[in-house]
């Protein structure tokens, strides 16, 4: 292809698009390159469930003919990507939801997000690993998928994060330019932070979930994970839009407008105590990020509205996943799951009192009103994406980062359905990445992306490359 391997593996979407249109590479060349990298580097990180080789080469050949004929579908045309394996794909490719008893599960059609990316000319090269059933059965350690524990591209003895584990490690290792992840309560933000990539959780309903596994109907969101915030915006623009097959999808159109978003005189806020109870390097890197953003924004420390965020999000999630997986739990197939705690965890959710679920929904309404008023006064609220760096593969999560070390901003953002992004902002314990989280008002993805782009324009953390991924 005439382009050195390292440059190709870690190029942004815009860079790859320029290479395609300059004739430095081709869609089929890119597809073959990333298929091979997934088969070696990606599999070494337990990031791959299925390579979609035949489909990828067919889509790449179509893109090649179209671009040669002057038919350009936009910035994703000819760009390979991977999808978390809870997004349905048409036969012959299975959609396992990360679960051993479902590893041969088939769906007749692509998920809407996959279909829209295909319409934008993107090339699906892989179904990527995930925590079984997106973590809904209560896993407490990294080995919770039949593909094995997600391995961090920065250290082979560290976790890649969940539940979008394969999406994080595949992007972080340069095995795909971008990936689809999903988030219910942190499953994009966490692996993005742990793996040193950019991960965008969109506004609830911005991307159709038709054809994607349901964990929690009122919390689930699909979003992009990529090298840069700009890449995330490009991918979101291709996936977003109303879908009659998903009645929760937003009717308001979305356009990614990077040139029109202001990046000066921003008003940003930081929660009081944002660096309390976090690892030392995590706190130091967050304060350094504030110093960078302070050049283009006013930053104010604020007190957050006082609500029981953790119990609310837990009650909603537990109640909805118990319903979503009731048949699966009743069938006894949970006994075939990988993590021992997942084989029994789902039974308890089935007996959660309806009163607790309804009460959580009532409190959620009050949380939304309070936070909409708060977010109306700021362009973004910032906090460390995670309180810790990626945990060791041999340590239980409850020992390494118990619930009281999980930042409230991630819980709040998912409760109210607001967009947030995690972008790399340095390195911490054991040389592992840390992340900066930026939360915005519902519908304000472009403002969140503008802040993240401004930060990445002043730093180079997103350009760092792990040595582990060079194999």
From TrEMBL:
The alphabetized UniProt keywords are: Transferase
Q: Spell out the coiled coil positions from the record.
A: none
Q: Name one GO molecular function term.
A: transferase activity
UniProt superkingdom: Bacteria
Q: Domain named Amidase: which ranges?
A: 31-449
Family membership: Belongs to the amidase family.
Report the protein name in the record: Glutamyl-tRNA(Gln) amidotransferase subunit A-like protein
Q: Which organism is it from?
A: uncultured Thermomicrobiales bacterium
């Amino acid at each position: 292809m005439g382009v050195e391997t390292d440059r190709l593996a870690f190029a942004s979407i815009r860079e790859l698009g320029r290479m395609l249109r300059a004739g430095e590479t081709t869609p089929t060349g890119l597809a073959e390159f990333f298929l091979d990298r997934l088969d070696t580097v990606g599999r070494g990180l337990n990031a791959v469930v299925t390579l979609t080789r035949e489909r990828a080469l067919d889509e790449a050949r179509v893109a090649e003919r179209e671009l040669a004929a002057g038919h350009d579908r936009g910035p994703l045309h000819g760009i390979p990507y991977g999808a978390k394996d809870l997004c349905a794909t048409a036969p012959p490719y299975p959609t396992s939801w990360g679960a051993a008893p479902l590893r041969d599960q088939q769906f007749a059609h692509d998920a809407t997000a996959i279909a829209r990316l295909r319409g934008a000319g993107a090339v699906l090269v892989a179904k990527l690993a995930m925590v079984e059933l997106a973590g809904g059965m209560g896993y407490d350690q990294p080995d919770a998928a039949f593909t094995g524990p997600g391995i961090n591209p920065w250290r082979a003895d560290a976790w890649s994060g969940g539940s979008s584990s394969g999406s994080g490690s595949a992007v972080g290792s340069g095995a795909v330019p971008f990936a689809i992840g999903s988030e219910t309560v942190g499953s994009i933000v966490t692996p993005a932070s742990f793996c040193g990539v950019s991960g965008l959780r969109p506004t609830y309903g911005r991307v159709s979930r038709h054809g994607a596994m349901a964990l929690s109907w009122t919390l689930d969101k699909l979003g992009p994970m990529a090298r840069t915030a700009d890449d995330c915006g490009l991918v979101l623009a291709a996936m977003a839009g109303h879908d009659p097959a998903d009645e929760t999808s937003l009717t308001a159109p979305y356009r990614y407008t990077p040139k029109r978003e202001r990046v000066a005189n921003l008003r940003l806020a930081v929660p009081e105590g944002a660096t309390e109870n976090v690892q030392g390097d995590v706190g130091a890197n967050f304060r350094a990020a504030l110093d960078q953003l302070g050049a283009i924004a006013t930053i104010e420390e604020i007190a957050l509205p006082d609500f029981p965020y953790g119990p609310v999000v837990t009650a909603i999630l537990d109640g909805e996943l118990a319903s979503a997986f009731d048949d699966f739990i009743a069938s006894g197939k949970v006994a075939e799951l990988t993590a021992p705690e997942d084989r029994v965890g789902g039974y308890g959710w089935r007996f959660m009192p309806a009163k607790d679920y309804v009460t959580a929904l009532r409190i959620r309404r009050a949380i939304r009103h309070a936070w909409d008023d708060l977010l109306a006064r700021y362009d973004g609220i910032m906090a460390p994406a995670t309180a810790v760096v990626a945990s060791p593969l041999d340590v239980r999560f409850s020992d390494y980062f118990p619930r009281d070390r999980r930042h409230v901003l991630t819980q709040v953002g998912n409760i109210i359905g607001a967009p947030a992004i995690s972008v790399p902002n340095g390195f911490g314990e054991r040389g592992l990445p840390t992340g900066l989280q930026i939360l915005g008002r519902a519908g304000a993805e472009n403002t969140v992306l503008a802040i993240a782009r401004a930060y990445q324009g002043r730093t180079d953390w997103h350009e760092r490359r792990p040595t582990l991924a060079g194999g």
